[in-house]
Amino acid sequence: MCVVFASEFFSALVPATVALFIIVDPFGNIPIFISLTEKVEPARRNKVFNLATLVGFVLLLFFAFLGQEVLAIFGLSIYAFGIAGGILLLIISVRILVTGSMHEASDSPESLGAVPIAMPLLVGPGAITTTIFNLQSYGIAVSIAAVLIVLSVTWVILRFINRIYRVLGKTGALVIARVMALFIAAIAIQYILTGATHFIEIGHT
After folding, report:
1. In degrees rounded to 5, what are phi and psi of residue 160?
2. Which of 48, 105, 132, 182 is geometrically suited to a Cys-Cys bond with 113, CB 3.0 to 4.6 A?
3. Domain residue spans of the chain
4. DSSP codes, 88-116
């Protein structure tokens, strides 16, 4: 009985975890994380990434269990959420391009962990939708396990970013920061276009 349950659990856990990992894409976001924390001291950068992982975990579980209800209360859709996230990222990318950083010197670097690293970069519309789908398709245990695995791997990846900084050097990190700001802008535009396309399609039906 236990063997059968374990087999079913792991057969569901693999696709749920892979789907969420692809959406969160911590490897692909490494240059973006570098650009956002380029001016943060290495010791505090670890705190930023620790907070980002924790906040991301809490947010994914929150939206998995209550996301649809909360959005329904405010009369929102996941596409409206995506547009809002896109606008936020667009503002961030412009600030990086203009000033070289997204936060003022007086700001707490740890605030980067919550916004925008945890949300909307790690926990964006895609990750929220995937987690809700996993909950509906595979159940609570698989959904929680998938979130734990993906964000644990993400945390490990983030912990290696300090080493990447040492390889790149200050100039290399600065160049990547400015270049990746354009990619952040592109992600923002994609979020906005996806949401806007959905509402345009609804308007034509």
Report:
1. -90, -5
2. 48
3. 2-204
4. HHHHHHHHHHHHSSSS-TTS-TTHHIIII
pLDDT at 175: 73
What is the number of other CB atoms lying within 10 angstroms of the CB of residue 97? 15
Q: Could you tell me which of 167, 130, 191 has the C-alpha nearest to residue 31? A: 167
Query: Tell me: the pLDDT tens digits for 162-202?
Result: 787 777 676 776 677 677 778 778 878 888 888 888 888 87
pLDDT in the model for residue 101: 57
Strand (E) or helix (H) holding 27: none
Burial degree of 30 (CB within 10 A; 0-12, 13-18, 19+): middle
Helix and strand tally (H, E) in the chain? 8, 0
Q: Determine the straight-line distance between the first and last CA of the chain, rounded to whole angstroms.
A: 49
Per-residue pLDDT tens digits for 2-59: 655 577 888 899 999 988 998 888 877 777 787 778 778 877 888 889 999 999 999 9
Instruction: Count CA atoms within 13 Å of residue 19 on its CB side.
Output: 21
Q: Which two tokens stand for residue 90?
A: 């667009």
Q: How many CB atoms lie within 10 A of CB 8?
A: 13
**CA of 105: how far to CAs of 1, 101, 109, 161, 188, in Å?**
59, 9, 9, 22, 25
